[in-house]
Design goal:
With 196 residues, the chain is α+β, with helices and mostly antiparallel strands. It has twelve helices and eight strands. A two-stranded antiparallel ribbon has the order 1-2.
Length: 196
Amino acid sequence: MTKKSYRYKNKKYTLAELAEISEVNIKCLSKRFSYGFTVKEAVETPLKISNKTYQYKGKKRTLVEISKLSGIAYTTLQYRLQLGQTFKEAVSKPIKKAKTLKYKGKVHTIAELSILSGVGERMIRKRLADGLTTKQAIETPRREVNKKYLYKGKKKTLTDFAEIYDTTYDLLRHRLARGMTIKDAIEKPVGYRVPK
């Protein structure tokens, strides 16, 4: 049985040879031919970055393979190429070291602290940028559920006031966000609209 040949630019190529002279891998070429692409269309139609092959360490490889060999995350390579960097720049540029923080006597990256605490990475970064300590950035609850308000001589959280005055936390929080005082937020009837 002879291998099927494809005519491209007045030369005959096998599927493997076509893949070798183009940036398109064999699997993608096969799929394109099964969809009815002409040889020219199959070879010259631009690829998504994820399907391209690149010459790396003597062989044509996909970004996934290059990622494993280079130690650079696939998404980092993809992002660098989307920014317009050449392939050589994308694989040779050093990787930034992840910022580490000391927490409870151990050194962690922000990603690790996020997993340990349940607080999102962006929130941790924002809190640190706002001047909070590592401990505060990790241990402060996501919502201000522990913030205390003074009403009728009692200092309590919104959750406590909602329970005492038979209303909901969300209603009180929403009213405060709209500019009401704690007194009005508690005393105004349900359905009351804040004047604009």
